[in-house]
Amino acid sequence: MDGAKGLETLSKEVLQFINGKRKLLIDGKWVESQSGETFEVYNPATGQVIAHVPAGNKEDVDMAVKAARKAFTEGSPWRKLTPSERGRIVSRIGDLILKYADELAQLESLDNGKPVSVARAADIPLAADLFHYMSGFATKLDGSTIQPSVPYTPGAEYHAYTRREPIGVVGQIIPWNFPLLMAAWKLGPALTSGCTVVLKPAEETPLTALRLGEICQEAGLPDGVLNIITGFGETTGAPLVAHPLVDKIAFTGSTEVGKLIVKAAAHDLKKLSLELGGKSPVIILDDANLDIAIPGAANGIFFNQGQCCAAGSRLYIQEKVYDQVVEGIAKYAKNLKVGPGLDPTTQLGPLVSQIQLERVTGFIESGKSQGASAASGGSRWGNEGYFVEPTLMVNTEDHMKVVQEEIFGPVVVATKFKDLDDDLIRRANDSVFGLASGIWSQDISKVHRLAARLQAGTVWVNCYNIFDASLPFGGFKQSGWGREMGSLVLNNYLESKTVCISL
Ligand code: ADP
Q: Are 41 and 51 in contact (CB under 8 A)?
């Protein structure tokens, strides 16, 4: 194998998986792409090739969509299952993720670069939990009974009810920052609702989604219910969005690609749910408990190398505690242990790709050229792999690119505010995004007032990056359409049908 360096700790199963011939999952069978083409998957810690996977194209997407269509047809094995049988399969997927948790954590760390300890503690159990949480809804997708008045038909009586039905064939396009977890966010509710799926993982990180395909088969998911096509955005993702037999696209990724998908879906008005970018403000009031606020705000940006759509990337710190917070976060950043994700002692791994490395260091340079400076970090780390030092930028102004644009790396900007007034709210909300936000304070009245005025889908108070299967997550403004997780996500995958009967 080409990229053996740094892979000494991998288990036999993971080595076998990356060295084996990876294929596409179509109609329950693992098949090569029609073109026979493959692409390379890299280890972000070294830049070396670790695996090859099929480069799916339009023909493969077409076969996968047709398989999903067939599996959705009335009378198919999937449609014949009772809700409770369907729920049990979804729940078994969760059980198997836990069974293979160590293997999945290694594979995720290898593919994405994230610390294996984080993948094992957060990504994998959360992915399992998502399937377990969602599975319970399979038996509770109830409609309601309605008693209509219909004033223009005096004397007539009606009985009406609503049914909640699966939307149909869903194309799911996911990013590389939490590869398995994003697949779980999408698949858990789609399968629970009775939909069938064509999943397209990100080209940077296709490995755990392919392993999840095997797990779904082991859990007893009928053929064709889940199809997985690896490949690139333009050659695999775009044909999926354009396919006339796809009823809905669920997308997580950049706002830029989200807009392309909106345009592409316009011709047949496909249903869309979009979970997009963010530039989330974190407000630290001078009454905050700094013992928890400093590490909490630091972790809010540096978690997952800052490659989180919800990353707390804009700090607004009240004047009185500004110096202490900046000093504390800079110290936290300097003490983080940077290294390869597979090293169990690593706290901050590499970014996912060379492109991402260039993008993030480009943002840091742009900040410096506009007059900002780095209170910690500010450069590439090492000269191998895609590492960036955890960076805290100060002396920023609100108009700067580093304050306005999503960096998607371990880079946070810190600015000062004097009073908790309209100006602070305006600055915190001064973004095209509205995904998440944070408040650190011990004053409950201030917290509630602020929480009501922040334009964000989530407000974390005295905590940050708390994700749970039960908590709806999604964006205001250009951060997206719809919600992931919680019971609200089911709206993405269900149609409501009204049945009205004249008695
Ligand atoms: P990032 O910029 O973080 O890499 P992207 O939004 O580019 O995120 O990618 C997220 C997902 O969207 C990936 O699976 C990618 O392949 C896919 N994608 C990219 N471009 C398109 C497109 N034009 N149509 C459909 N999917 C796309």
A: yes
Active-site residue, selected from the candidate residues 103, 275, 389, 406: 275
Q: What angle separates helix 101-112 from helix 83-99, to the nearest 10 degrees? A: 70
Q: What is the largest CA-CA distance in the chain?
A: 82
Angle made by CA atoms 482, 484, 486, in degrees to the nearest 5: 115
Rounded CA gap, 304 and 120, in Å?
13
Q: How confident is the model at residue 6 (pLDDT cuts 50, 70, 90)?
A: confident
Domains of the chain: 25-41+55-276+481-499 (3.40.605.10), 281-468 (3.40.309.10)
- pLDDT-based confidence at 4, cuts 50/70/90? low
Residues 471 and 318 sit within 8 Å (Cβ to Cβ): no
Ligand 1 atom nearest residue 200's Cα: 14
Is any atom of ligand 1 closer than 6 Å to the C-beta of 55?
no
pTM value is 0.97
Strand segments (E) across 139-206? 145-146, 158-166, 169-173, 196-200
Residue 309 annotated among the catalytic residues of the structure: yes
d(CA 245, CA 172): 14
Ligand 1 centre to CA of 502 (Å) is 49
173 lines ligand 1 (CB under 6 A): yes
- Gap between the terminal Cα atoms of the chain: 72
Per the residue annotation, which of 216, 309, 389, 484 is the catalytic one? 309
Report whether residue 260 contacts ligand 1, using a CB cutoff of 6 Å: yes
Active site residue 384: no
The verdict on the CB of residue 203 being under 6 Å from ligand 1 is: yes
**C-alpha span between 437 and 315 (Å, rounded):** 10
Is the distance from CB of 396 to CB of 403 less than 8 angstroms?
A: yes
Q: Which phi and psi angles does 420 have, rounded to 5°?
A: -80, 80
pLDDT of residue 280: 98
What proportion of the chain, given as a percentage, has pLDDT over 70?
99
> Which atom of ligand 1 approaches the CA of 252 most closely?
10
